[in-house]
């Protein structure tokens, strides 16, 4: 049974999320401020963290930064901050998904399921392009002899590119394939993910086609 840590200071929301997660078959641990969240993470070692941004004692961005120093546990950021700048800041800290309040419980549970599935990734193919190899079963990426850590969404984007390396990847195509439950994803969010992938891999062969999309060259 997967354990999900919910770090949310609004107890009614935290308890509601907990009830639905438990009904869906997950074990739930709850914390109501950032410092408690970090302590509970170290105790529980959860499979996924649901993290609010506006937390007392230590905000969600700081909590995420601390978690990333410890592990690659998938993080879904739960927030009332829907502006693009806040989302980009979260993705820069390598969160896996954003859920904006108010939200649909059904969509939220689908995102939890999808993030956990991506993180475990039962598929078995190895995709390669130039010096990069992406192992779908192990959920690892190698650039030459270096192993590269990517967030869940970065991994998905690179996987999409490598699975069809001759295709021009338009924003609409990427949204259709990877943001099935997000209808307000901004151009800047996709760009930030791709910028992070380029930087982490140290490559220049993911080209931007201005006004069109992206292509491997």
Brief summary:
It is built from 8 helices and 12 strands. By secondary structure, the chain is an alpha/beta fold.
What keyword list fits this structure?
single chain; 217 residues; alpha/beta; 5-stranded parallel β-sheet; 12 strands; 23% strand
Task: Write up this protein.
The chain has 217 residues and is an alpha/beta fold. Helix content is 43%, strand content 23%. The strands form three sheets. A five-stranded parallel β-sheet has the order 2-1-3-4-5, sandwiched between helices.
Strand content: 15-25%
- Give the overall shape: globular
User: The biggest beta sheet, please?
Assistant: 5 strands, parallel
Number of helices: 8
- The secondary structure category is alpha/beta
The first-to-last residue Cα distance is 43 Å
- Average pLDDT level: 87
Strand order of the largest sheet: 2-1-3-4-5
Helix % is 40-55%
Low-confidence stretches: none
Count all strands and give the number.
12
- H and E order: EHEHEHEHEHEEEEHEHHEE
Indicate the multimeric state. Answer: single chain
Rg (CA only):
17 Å
